[in-house]
């Protein structure tokens, strides 16, 4: 159930961002810039929505994902079902330049 809530929240966040762009409230050109989005593990979460909006603004997308889901995430991107989630506002598909395994280590002072 939590995954559905997160997916719904990501869709809402993406819709709100598109609404701002449509109203020209957010007019950013990120062409030539590179964006690293950490924590993306599927095509339905907040990280994915952020990646899409940055790609819509022209940024080159690099993703950092948790090492245990890296292969599954890479395989999911090759599936036809993911194509709809990759569609950008101009109809093109979001390209991901690189996917890195990214793990966090926590320390206490």
Automatic annotation (TrEMBL):
GO terms for molecular function: enoyl-[acyl-carrier-protein] reductase (NADH) activity. Pathway: Lipid metabolism. Keywords: Fatty acid biosynthesis, Fatty acid metabolism, Lipid biosynthesis, Lipid metabolism, Oxidoreductase. It comes from the Eukaryota. Gene3D superfamilies: NAD(P)-binding Rossmann-like Domain (3.40.50.720). One of its GO terms (biological process) is fatty acid biosynthetic process. The keyword Zinc does not apply. This is Uncharacterized protein. It comes from Strombidinopsis acuminata.
